[in-house]
């Protein structure tokens, strides 16, 4: 992949995350294939992907939209936009897309997507990635972006500098996507995990938006305590986070426009299968493995797990 403009890009999972960033790439003229399914795929094929955004609405027409990866061929870059819990099951569908120089970029919430992908397809194609965006699928073929500036963070898992990370960054920047290259992508992943998992878990239990969680003293204390547990868990994994990461994260959340909800929270409230196991469940599981107490996150998980099981049984 020497020229970002000639790259063949596959967006595996064209929901809120994959759809937004893939849509920006398609809008900029890149050769983009969306891997989607069901009514969402049908709508994209008929009308393109319609994105509403404070920075300007647009309709993205991908080069191809399909549910069959075997028909696509080898990609230069694969952006993984499925929910975190689905990553480990992608091996068979991903293999036809991966060649000797393919770069696979996970954009999931949580801290295990890269390792799940490595277990599925090998370590060589995988770089570390995450995104910051508030977006949702509002109807088949329609995505709404709201709030913060959509940003992708990239980095080699081992912290090294590489031309392929620079090229993926250039590709995204050519589509007016904000990009950061991290020397410590593991720390960046844990920083986001510390933000998104407590927010989603507490939001799922309380069913109130973020501004209420942050302004009510009772839920603010719980949010802070849940974040502090994640910080302790990161330290137990040898990941160094800033000493003020919890207070700094709370300040960031205070600035999110009112009415904001986390994606996991929205799924839980709608009784859809969510990322509960990949987020709050992972905190509980890793805490037990590492001997780190996680009482707040365990309480949140225990409250939400029965509803999650019902949602999955009915999906």
Description:
The protein has twelve helices and twelve strands. The chain is an alpha/beta fold. The chain has two domains: 4-183, Rossmann fold (3-Layer(aba) Sandwich), CATH 3.40.50.720; 187-314, N-(1-d-carboxylethyl)-l-norvaline Dehydrogenase, domain 2 (Orthogonal Bundle). The strands form three sheets. It has a five-stranded parallel β-sheet. Strands 4-3-10-9 form a four-stranded mixed β-sheet. Strand 1 (8-12), helix 1 and strand 2 (31-35) form a beta-alpha-beta unit. Helix 8 crosses helix 11.
Task: Give descriptors for this structure.
12 strands; globular; Rossmann fold; 4-stranded mixed β-sheet; single chain; 5-stranded parallel β-sheet; 12 helices; 2 domains; N-(1-d-carboxylethyl)-l-norvaline Dehydrogenase, domain 2; 315 residues; alpha/beta
Which radius of gyration do the C-alpha atoms yield?
Answer: 19 Å
Oligomer: single chain
Largest sheet: 5 strands, parallel
Q: Per the principal axes of the C-alpha atoms, what is the gross shape?
A: globular
Number of structural domains:
2
Provide the CATH topology of the largest domain: Rossmann fold
| SSE pattern | EHEHEEEEHEHEEEEHEHHHHHHH
In the sheet with the most strands, the strands line up as 5-2-1-6-7
The CATH architecture classification of the largest domain is 3-Layer(aba) Sandwich
By DSSP (H or I, 4+ residues per run), the number of helices equals: 12
CATH class of the largest domain: Alpha Beta
In CATH terms, the superfamily of the largest domain is: NAD(P)-binding Rossmann-like Domain
